Amino acid sequence: MKRLLKREFRKCTYLPKTNKNEDTHIVSELLTYDDESTERNFNVIENYKRPYFVTKKIYRKRHKQKQEYEDVKYLERIDCTESEAVKKLAFKLGERGRPNMRKLKSSPYLYNADLKASTIIKKIYNSKLNGDFTPYSVCMLDIEAHVLTSEISLITISLDDKSFTYVNKTWMDDKDEDKFKEKVYKIYEEEAPDIKSVSKDGLVTTTDGSTYTLDIIFCRDEGKVIQQCMSKVHALKPDILTAWNALYDIDTMSQRARDVWRIDPADLFSDPSIPKHLRHFSIKRDDGDYKKMNSGKESFVPFHARWHVFNTSSYFTILDNMAAFFFIRNGSEPQVAGGYSLDNILDNYVNFNKLKPRIPGLDFLGKKEWNEVMSRKHKAEYCAYNIFDSKSMIFLDNKTNDLTINLPLLLQDSEIDIFKSGPKRLLDSYSFFLLDKGKVVSTKSPLAQKTEGLGTEDWIVTLDAWKKGYKNTFKPWVSLDTVRSNLRLLTTDLDIISSYPFQTLMFGLGTKRTSRELIDVEGFEKSYFVKQNLGICTGKVHALGFGSKMLNLPTVYELDEYIKNKKVA
Fold first, then answer.
1. How many other C-beta atoms are found inside a 10 Å radius of the C-beta of residue 398?
2. What is the CA radius of gyration of the chain?
3. What 8-state DSSP symbol labels residue 161?
4. Is the per-residue pLDDT at 560 higher than 80?
């Protein structure tokens, strides 16, 4: 009898309590056995009680503002489900009326409320693995739909060694399926890069000798295309289902299924083994065209920097490959010249482009017009184009390891919904770190903070200025003067509000170690103060001017006159 070696967390779907179900967490697991075989499994956890903390009443006079963290001896622990948290926490905090979690989080006496139950469950799983994990399996999806009606004509899903293409027969002109297949395979062999041959049954042999298979499945109508495609995905059970600009693909599939074919998206995207009352599908759209910066200004958010969250009662996690590609590199690599279209990313990272069959007269067309003409007049070529779009994302991930390895490593104990936010992921890790030390992190208030004095609007924040001061870096070895670390002995961050509660990472700059805080400078307008601070950030040359204007020190000319008079005397 085979023995279970490890049980790995893959995703967790949370369903709040309703009249149909209890407070439920559906955990997708990967089970690995001693014979190296693996198995996918669901662990359905009902009414999971997670810990919250509130300051004990006798210690609440110690502070009236939020603390960065608190020692557990001053706190009372409340274990409850997330569905009943508002009621129980409101009672403990003395809140009356009709409180909500947003209001409760503004209390200076509530701790650990930013940590979700699903994140705690993931931490419990990960703590038993000692850093060992199995790389994620990925399924790449790509759809082709009518430009005007959005009717889906093709869907291809691809894994490492196989691709499945679902064709809407009402879209086809040529009803001879075998002839259509043969034509598609021939075009793929001639147009796709690094292909040696494609057999009649869809076996692809590449120039380096590796192989994978193509399979084309013909479906009665669009509804069957969508259903059969998702049935195959559920059977394959990948860890991640993704597409380039996934919001378009997944949203189109769900809307067409619901509005045209009366198929419930919850049934379509949920695993068939999940009970009917626990099936769920929703999209939390990151639709904000602009985001407000800490300076008060608004900045446009490009499509590749929007992190849409897809919630499904499935084994797999749905995410946008384009956004994942951007956020995995955000801050560590410069933005890609030419943008984040799949064609441009393939050109920059794997040295080939999307498959575009050579058809005379189409080169001058724009993207929308090209797709419309291809879909109407060149259907076999369009099918080959769709297959390669899906397969090319596999080639890209084999080169970058973004979704198979980098994504789970960057997530650590956090979940996919907050992946775009480095501070939120850091807070998860910081919370578990403090809990191990007998301390509990505070809860960040979601309510706007009104600051006294100088405020935070209309500032120009030069966050990278400290990097220019190489001489300020710490020398780890006294005998090697030329070797410097990336540690700074003195670092100042003007953007303190948005860095809370992470200031402790700057070695001492935090609420528990701040004895005085500048809120106003008497005799100076705010605009003047901002101008002088911006000047001193640009280098030492402005330090004398800052000293004379802000600290009433002598000017350069006064010092020069003083030295001349001193010499004469």
1. 13
2. 29
3. S
4. yes
Bridge-based pairing of strands 138-145 and 240-243 is parallel
According to DSSP, the residues that pair with 45 across neighbouring strands are 25
End-to-end CA distance of the chain: 101
Q: Which helix (H) or strand (E) holds 69?
A: strand 69-71
Q: Give the helix/strand (H/E) hosting 547.
A: helix 543-550
CA-CA distance, 375 to 357, in Å (whole number)? 13
Unique residue bearing structure tokens 């009356």: 96
Over residues 280-294, the pLDDT tens digits come to: 999 999 987 767 655
With b for 16 or more beta-carbon neighbours within 10 A and e for fewer, the 281-307 pattern comes to bebeebeeeeeeebeeeeeeeebbbbb
Contacts (Cβ under 8 Å, ≥6 apart) of 198: 185, 186, 188, 189, 204, 205, 214
- Cα gap 265→562, rounded to integer Å: 82
Pure H helices in 147-220: 177-191
Question: Sorting pLDDT into bands at 50, 70 and 90, what band is 478?
Answer: low
Domains and CATH numbers, the chain: 4-132+414-441 (3.30.342), 138-400 (3.30.420.10), 465-568 (no CATH)
Which residue, among 169, 207, 166, 200, has the nearest Cα to 185 in the 3D structure?
200
The DSSP line for 79-121 is EE-STTHHHHHHHHHT--SS--HHHHTT-TTEESTTS-HHHHH
The closest of 222, 301, 324, 303 to 263, measured between CA atoms, is: 222
Given the structure tokens 């559906």, which residue do they identify? Answer: 26
Say if residues 68 and 510 touch (Cβ distance below 8 Å).
yes
- Is 318 or 295 the better-scoring residue by pLDDT? 318
The residue ranking higher by pLDDT, 141 or 290, is: 141
Question: Residue 137 and residue 233: Cα distance in Å, rounded?
Answer: 12
* Widest Cα–Cα separation across the chain: 109
Which amino acid is it at 164?
Answer: F
> Hunting for tokens 């690995």 — which residue is that?
32
Helix (H, G, I), strand (E, B) or coil at 519: coil
Q: Which helix (H) or strand (E) holds 154?
A: strand 152-158
Within 10 Å of residue 270's Cβ, how many Cβ atoms? Answer: 24
Instruction: Provide the residue type at 41 as one letter.
Output: N
